[in-house]
Design a protein that fits this description.
The structure is a single chain. By secondary structure, this protein is mainly α. The chain is 72% helix and 0% strand. Among the domains are: 1-46, Arc Repressor Mutant, subunit A (Orthogonal Bundle); 177-322, Tetracycline Repressor, domain 2, CATH 1.10.357.10. The chain starts with a helix and ends in an 8-residue tail after the last helix.
C-alpha cells in the first residue's frame, strides 16, 4: 500500500472535518478533495468513522510526542515548557485541534486517551499523580485558553498561565462552603402564556440538542410546537438564523441562571466556586445546551465565539481586583475550568465528583499547584 495515498486521504479528511461538521462530510467528498477515487479510500479505511478515529489517534500521539522531552528536562524547566508545548500545539496544529474537539464530543474515549497522556505529563512536572481537581486546574484552563487563542485570537499570555498553575489566580480569602453550595436555587422564569416565537425556540432547542442541527428540519420544529410552517418564517428568515437565536438563548439562560443565584456577600473566591456549582446544576437541568454549543462550533463558529465572549464580558464587568496576573488570561482560564468540569460531569458520568472537586478548586484558585522543581 502507498503511504502517500493514505496520507493524502487523511490530509483531505482533516481539512474537511476541521471546517465542517462530521455528519455533513462524505467519503466521496474526502476522495474528491484528495484527487483520488472512492476505491482508493476503501483500500485504507473501512468507513468514514475509521478515518476519523485514525485522525483522533494521530492527535493523541502527536501531543504525546510533543510532551515527551519534558522527561529529560531539569525539573525547574518543566512547568514553563509544559505550558509552552500545549499552547504552541494549538497554534501550530489548529485544524487538528478543531477535529479533536468534535471527536472529544462524539467519541469520548479519545478524550480519555488524551487525559492519560496529560496525567503522565502532570506527573513529570509536579512529581505526583493529580487528583480530579488538580487535573482540571492544570489542563482545563490551559487547554481552553490555548484553544481560544488559536481559534478566536484571544490575547492569552503564556507567562501568566505559568504563574496561575504555580501560584493560583485569586488572592487568598476565607471560604464558607455553606454559602457556596446552598440549595436555595431560583429556577429560570416559566412562560405561562408563551407566544409563538417562544414555542418555536423551545422546541428548536430540544430538537437541536437531541438530534443535532443537520438532522432537525423546520417542519418538525413547527409541527412539534403545534404551529404552521408560515409561523416560523414570520419570526426567522432561515434555519441558520433560527439556530443563531437558539444559541443566544442558551447563553442568555446560563448567564441569567448563574447571576440570579449567585447571591450577595460572597468574596471573589466564593463567587467563582458558587458560579461553578451553579453551572453544573444548570447542566444537570438542561443537558441540551452543551450539545447545541459544541455542534455550533462547526455550524456557526462566529456565534460560538460570541457565546464565550459574552461570558468573558460578564467577568470584565465585575472588574475583579483579586486576580493575581493578566485579567484576560485569568478569565479564559476560569472559563476553561467550567467547560471541562462540565465535560467530566456530563460525559464521564461523574456528578458525584462536582462538589468535592469545586471545594478543592477553590484552594487551587488561591494557591496553585506549586512548582514541581521543589518537589
Amino acid at each position: 500500500m502507498n503511504s502517500n495515498t493514505r496520507q493524502a486521504l487523511i490530509d483531505s479528511a482533516v481539512t474537511l472535518f476541521s471546517t465542517k461538521w462530521y455528519g455533513t462530510v462524505s467519503v466521496a467528498e474526502i476522495c474528491r478533495a484528495a484527487g483520488l477515487s472512492n476505491g482508493a479510500f476503501y483500500r485504507y479505511f473501512k468507513s468514514k468513522e475509521e478515518i476519523f478515529c485514525a485522525i483522533l489517534d494521530h492527535v493523541v500521539r502527536q501531543i504525546e510526542r510533543a510532551l515527551k522531552p519534558l522527561a529529560s528536562m531539569p525539573p525547574s524547566q518543566r512547568l514553563p515548557n509544559f505550558v509552552s508545548i500545549i499552547y504552541t500545539f494549538s497554534q501550530a496544529h489548529t485544524p487538528l485541534v478543531r477535529v479533536f474537539r468534535e471527536g472529544q464530543y462524539r467519541l469520548f474515549q479519545y478524550e480519555r486517551k488524551l487525559k492519560d497522556v496529560y496525567r503522565h505529563a502532570f506527573h513529570l512536572v509536579f512529581g505526583r499523580a493529580p487528583s480530579i481537581a488538580e487535573y482540571l486546574f492544570a489542563l482545563a484552563g490551559l487547554r481552553f485558553a490555548s484553544i481560544r487563542a488559536a481559534l478566536h485570537q484571544i490575547p492569552v499570555q503564556t507567562d501568566a498561565l505559568v504563574m496561575i498553575l504555580r501560584e493560583g489566580l485569586l488572592k487568598p480569602q476565607p471560604i464558607n462552603t455553606e454559602r457556596i453550595f446552598s440549595t436555595s436555587i431560583t429556577p429560570l422564569p416559566i412562560e405561562l402564556w408563551p407566544d409563538n416565537r417562544y414555542l418555536l425556540l423551545a422546541e428548536g432547542r430540544k430538537l437541536f440538542g437531541e438530534k443535532g442541527y443537520f438532522e432537525t428540519n423546520i417542519h418538525e420544529v413547527t409541527s412539534n410546537a403545534g404551529l404552521a410552517i408560515g409561523s416560523f418564517y414570520r419570526y426567522f428568515e432561515s434555519k441558520e438564523a433560527f439556530y443563531k437565536e437558539v444559541i443566544r438563548s442558551v447563553g442568555k439562560d446560563v448567564r441569567h441562571f448563574i447571576s440570579m443565584n449567585l447571591g450577595s456577600g460572597l468574596n471573589p473566591v466564593e463567587r467563582e466556586m458558587r458560579g461553578l456549582w451553579l453551572f453544573i446544576l444548570f447542566l444537570s437541568m438542561d443537558r441540551y445546551c452543551y450539545n447545541i454549543v459544541r455542534e455550533a462550533e462547526f455550524v456557526l463558529p462566529n456565534e460560538v465565539r460570541d457565546y464565550y465572549d459574552a461570558f468573558h464580558r460578564g467577568y470584565l464587568k465585575r472588574e475583579n481586583p483579586s486576580f493575581t496576573c493578566d485579567t484576560t488570561t485569568c478569565i479564559e482560564f476560569m472559563l476553561g475550568v467550567a467547560h471541562y468540569l462540565g465535560i467530566e460531569v456530563i460525559f464521564d458520568n461523574s456528578p458525584e465528583i462536582a462538589r468535592q472537586t469545586i471545594e478543592e478548586m477553590g484552594e487551587l484558585y488561591m494557591h496553585g499547584l506549586g512548582d514541581g522543581a521543589h518537589r
